[in-house]
Amino acid sequence: MGSGGAFPAQKRLPMTHGGARGRGAPLLLRGRQINKTLHNIKITILCSFVTILVLRGTIGIGSLVTSEADAENQHLIEETNRILAEIRSDKDPSDPDEGPERFLSLNDTFSLGPRISNWDEDRKVWLEKNPQFPNFVKGKPRILLVTGSQPAPCDNAIGDHYLLKALKNKIDYCRIHGIEILYNMAHLDKEMAGYWAKLPLLRRLMLSHPEVEWIWWMDSDALFTDMVFEIPVSKYKDYNMVIHGYPDLLFDQKSWIALNTGSFLFRNCQWSLDLLDAWAPMGPKGPLREEAGKILTASLKGRPAFEADDQSALIYLFLSQKERWMSKVYVENSFYLHGFWEGLVDQYEEVIEKYHPGLGDARWPFVTHFVGCKPCGSYGDYPVERCLKSMERAFNFADNQVLNLYGFRHRGLVSPNIKRIRNETVAPLVNVDQFDIRHAARHTAEPQS
Amino acid sequence: MVGRLLGPRRARQLQRFVRNGKLTIFCLFLTVIMFRGYLGAGKFGTPEKDLDDIRETLSFIRNRAEPRRVLEEALISGQGGLKSAENAGAGSNNYAAFDITKIFRDEDDGAEEFNRDPSQPYSLGPKISDWDEQRAEWLQRHPKFPNFLREHKPRVLLVTGSSPKPCENPVGDHYLLKSFKNKIDYCRLHAIEIFYNMALLDAEMSGFWAKLPLIRKLLLSYPEVEFLWWMDSDAMFTDMAFELPWERYKDVNFVLHGWDHMIYDEKNWIGLNTGSFLLRNCQWSLDLLDTWAPMGPKGKVREEAGKVLTRELKGRPVFEADDQSAMVYILATQKEKWADKVYLESAYYLHGYWGILVDKYEDMIESYQPGYGDHRWPLVTHFVGCKPCGKFGDYPVERCLKQMDRAFNFGDNQILQMYGFTHNSLGSRRVRRIRNETSNPIAMRDELGLLHPAFKAVKFWW
């Protein structure tokens, strides 16, 4: 007879046993039966174990059908993720080892640079020597819009997508209004990191570009929503800083959100350099910023406990040195130089129905600022869906005003697709004169408040 | 049954043989499967994959706990805690798991829509025959919008763009952003306006053909623009100091990078590149666009045209018609009509294929300086085939992304040096100071003279 194999053995064992013994005592029979059962169970378990192993080994649990394209796809995705993780990590293999980070101690003084005291005269001389770079062009002062974001990819892809859209939005506004734009992606000063990074940047740009009359800082999460409205600079000829806020919140209530440093203008002058120097000391990372944060929380109404931020620091500076600064600061709220998004984004349909671009205020907001959404990070202060949907709406709301010249419009405020609202013609310049914001503005009398 | 046929002993032998055979086959089968399972099938459900999964999950948890990057310090836990307490239960605050495409939705706002009559053959728009006259008259009426900013310097509009939807590749948008910043920097220095397109104007002209209706629309909407400069989103400026030789082009209407002999003699499909070209705003250009468009409409037209192009052009693989091949075909077959107003530029890299340039950056830094625009210091490095926004490109992902970073930094160094900084290396995002702050900033000059270059000094450019 043949040997081995699970199944033949199973068949044979009872035979051998039964054949050898014949008619034995019932107890012995019972024992034999138990043995048999045990043996069978053992074999069954062994076989099932082998089967499972084999099945798992070849088919796996979950992925039942494998094809080469899927495998390649999977491989590519994994490789991209690995490279992504490498790109996102702060570690740079080519960077020299910087050693442990040293923070300024509480006794150190921080300065943005060597003290400059006659910038107004120097600048005047430079402008005279360089007439090809005037600070007033076509009767308007030269403005430089400055914005920026981190040099590394955002924590999530959607963050970079909205940075891209926000930049396009700013480029569109600046092209229509003749404003130069600079997008910064470098950390110029390691100590002034985070929201403080704008201070060394603004100082450097002011000093490098004497031909710029106004520097306009704008956060990367702020979008233009009124493409027609132009800042009434003539209103500010006696001021050096224009910032959105509410004087009563500032002086009476000392609220930490009385002003907003997400969108403000600075004149290129000595006064501004002095302000930056006075503003900077609360900024340096480490114990200085922590301590400053505590002072600010104690002094300003409603401020939570966290390290010093530039906005609270500026408010504190204006409150404690009111006589020195406030005469040259215009706290603007007649239009939304900064417009907090939550109260604005749901009104867009109503706004379109009732009003027209060019107003810049609550009727048609100039800027919609997505404070707290933080799409470039991992977590925002608001639900993600609300933030992203609102940002998409604001972007399309503004984009419609740009596309109008070309005869197109978005298919709704949450749609990336467009539809044609005006046929092509053989005399396109008629439409250009009527719909181009730069030309149309000459024909209609826009109220300059 | 077999037993009856062969006899009892034979039958038993046969039975035994069959049984053994079954056993052998079965065991062989098991062995093969086991081997395949552990060595051959790779990662599909093997215990090794389990270990990998476990490792991945653990590292993900670890990453979540790591401190956030520097710029995200804004309004940390204190304020965050306040706000999220108010919004508890209103939805997730985590951006990682969110799918943006579920937000996008087409809606009808009641505005009348105009569509092209599909029964008519495709055209970009009604034929205009007097554009030069229309434009000249308009320019006369608008003296504040001249088409020349200075003698010999035309008003230029640089046009680029990308999809309004997020990239399929998670890091694609970041590279689009960097590429956009790079173009903004060059254009700011050279008094060039930028238009970034994110709209598909014509669904029939999709993909690489989308630029045609866009270019026509922009030429007609901006009569003050003298030259329209189309540039692909995957092309970057690497020479910030190079100003285009506008005088060279005063008698031509279309400037592309390429070689005459490769087009007119060889009909080589890569004899020119439509990733970066100049087109004058005039009747000739409108006519060219009208001649160019017919191979574009999606579907059968594009497929058939693709076959014609593969047949007629040298070296072209089989795929649907693309705008570049179509242009080669037009120039090669209608030379008498177009060639005298077309300039195939090869003296500098109006388009520079990245494969031959990116490894040489360090050599260039050592031996030359910005301003040449050619092989010594290329004006444009064009990442043809990389497709950072899509999932699959023609080249390995790692090489593409790393080289794009290097090209970006190579160009960015020229901008940063204006302000006294430079990248730590071509592969590094970090910057270091190369010039100290001074108490006499007026006297400061940047090495390349890019702060106030002659080509930026124009009377007005808006």
Automatic annotation (TrEMBL), chain A:
GO biological process: xyloglucan biosynthetic process
EC number, as in UniProt: 2.4.2.39
GO MF terms held by the record: hexosyltransferase activity; xyloglucan 6-xylosyltransferase activity
Record keywords: Glycoprotein, Glycosyltransferase, Golgi apparatus, Membrane, Signal-anchor, Transferase, Transmembrane, Transmembrane helix
Recorded family membership: Belongs to the glycosyltransferase 34 family.
Name recorded for this polypeptide: xyloglucan 6-xylosyltransferase
Entry GO CC: endosome; Golgi membrane; trans-Golgi network
Principal location class: Golgi
Segments for region (Disordered): 1-24
Compartments where found: Golgi apparatus membrane
Top-level enzyme category: transferase
Native source species: Salvia splendens
Membrane association type: Single-pass type II membrane protein
Pfam families hit by this protein: Glyco_transf_34
Signal peptide: none
